[in-house]
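Q: Predict the bound structure with heme C.
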Amino acid sequence: MKKIALALIVAGSTLMAADGAALYKKCVACHGANGEKKALNKSEVITGWDSAKTVEALNGYKAGTRNIKGMGGLMKGQVASYSDADIKAVSDYIAGLK
Ligand code: HEC
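A: Predicted complex:
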């Protein structure tokens, strides 16, 4: 909970319906608990990425228009079921990672 509160403050948001920390749980295996890993040795380190930048990237994967290292299809599967609110929440959470 402490981390969530911190992420909220960092993102300057008030209250969110979606739980960014919970949504990020399935990302940990590839991106690391703090976003510090290059997922499958392909992605950038996403620790502390600006929320808007992450939202743009995730929306691109969801729409199937983003594919930087040929693994866009894999990322599409990760966020396909995420709503706009979910994408915003997980992005705000990532922005608070150190
Ligand atoms: C199975 C491993 C895996 C999982 C799980 C995964 N990712 Fe990724 N992610 C990748 C790979 C590989 C890429 C590079 C995709 C490409 O070619 O554009 C990537 C790219 C990204 C990028 C863009 C980074 C860049 O280099 O431009 C973001 C942001 C991201 N992932 C966030 C997430 C989030 C948030 C989740 C959880 C909802 C998640 N990922 C789950 C493997 C994973």
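A: The CA atoms of residues 58 and 79 lie 7 Å apart.
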